[in-house]
Amino acid sequence: MKILIPTLIVISSVFMSCKQNNTQSNTNSNVTGEILQTTQTPPDIANNSDGFYRQLKGTIGTAEVQMSLVKIGTKLYGKYAYSRIGQLIDLSPRGTEENIDADGKFVLFEFATDKNGDYNQTGTFNGQILPNGLVKGVWTSADEKKNLNFELNDAPANDAANISISKIEKQEGDCEGESEVTCAHFEVIYPTIKQLPDRNEQTKQLINTTILNVLAESMPTEQPTAPDKAAELFIQDFKEQDSEYKMGWEYELTTEVYQNANNILSIGFANYIFTGGAHPNHSESYYNFNLKTGQLIELGDIFKPKYETQLTALAEQKIRSLHNIGAKSPLSEAGFFEDKFELNDNFSISATGITFLYNPYEITPYVMGEQLIFIPFKEVKDLLQPGGLINWSF
């Protein structure tokens, strides 16, 4: 199992912020697992399920698209892909904005990596989720020269898990005021499997337990800690800062859903932390579940034996192309730490391909950001296990 390192933690495309003052009473945290046990949630830690995860299908203009949306409170984010292309595009609020109101009106900004490897805004969705569930509005290109109507409705994928989304949040100080040094904000958005395609309760519990253990290992604490307890420790440490050097603190963990179909659930835990220093730290770790067995999927479950050489060479070609590095030029001349490229096991699965993620500091300096390598399944069709996990058309 991959472990998220507390000192080098993530956000992929969604930045949450200190917007709500958690003073109301909240429900109890009721989670179980090898590490996380049922606990009494303190009244100033919000653990709410005011949210959803939805799979949608529809059109932008005349182009067919598929989209997944996650809502928690007044935050809405997700991903979508044009059916004929397949590569996922991020959807998120901008900065600290609360981007969906009580009437379902929302603004989503789309971000994607361009041909030069730069991650930029590529469009904006202004729309509304209607009472009947229909999602509609207008998509505008980043340069505002193109406007297209969009309309989407629920289209649950085949062999998908039923997922609920919840949040644990704790805040200290005035996070809406001008002085950020008085604010500490802790937020964890996490999924729970409500039902599997085959309704197997034992497998469901295995996946939920794994998720809870990953969350515990991801907390900014020295030892694996339940998120509600980690929230208390985070605020306590914030209060104990030396007043001469006091700064605002923030920790956020967001769930990203990359695939939930064909008995595969691919999720990412995107973490972001700032407790002082030159810059925040961020990273993301992917987890891919076989919904039939509850086990984490490894590369060997997807590809034929001895896939490594060919797959690594293809991934290196793509990273070189992304950074305009010649086939014979050393990677180090472009800022990479090593000249030899190696494939890692931090991968997500989508309907059309596999994406490898290298977090900041992993193979490049922080300033170069994360490195994403998308490999369409159609380019590695001969490497896939016959009759294996990837058994749909793409």
Can you give a write-up of this model?
The protein is mostly beta strands. The chain is built from four helices and 17 strands. The chain has an eight-stranded antiparallel β-barrel with strand order 2-3-4-5-6-7-8-9. A six-stranded mixed sheet has the order 1-10-11-12-13-14, covered by helices on one side. Strands 15-16-17 form a three-stranded antiparallel sheet, covered by helices on one side. The longest helix is centred in the middle third of the chain and has 18 residues, at 201-218. The chain is globular, with a radius of gyration of 21 Å.
Quickly describe the structure.
It contains four helices and 17 strands.
What are the defining features of this structure?
single chain, 394 residues, mainly beta, 13% helix, 36% strand
**Radius of gyration, Cα only, in angstroms?**
21 Å
**SS strand fraction:** 35-45%
> What is the first-to-last residue Cα distance?
28 Å
Mean pLDDT: 85
Any low-confidence stretches, pLDDT <50, length ≥5? Answer: 1-43
What is the number of E strands?
Answer: 17
| Class inferred from helices and paired strands | mainly beta
Number of helices: 4
Q: Which oligomerization state do the chains in this entry correspond to?
A: single chain
Helix % is 10-25%
Biggest pleated-sheet summary: 8 strands, antiparallel, barrel
Shape by Cα distribution = globular
Written as H for each helix and E for each strand, in order along the chain, the element string is EEEEEEEEEEEHHEEEHHEEE
What is the strand arrangement across the widest sheet? 2-3-4-5-6-7-8-9
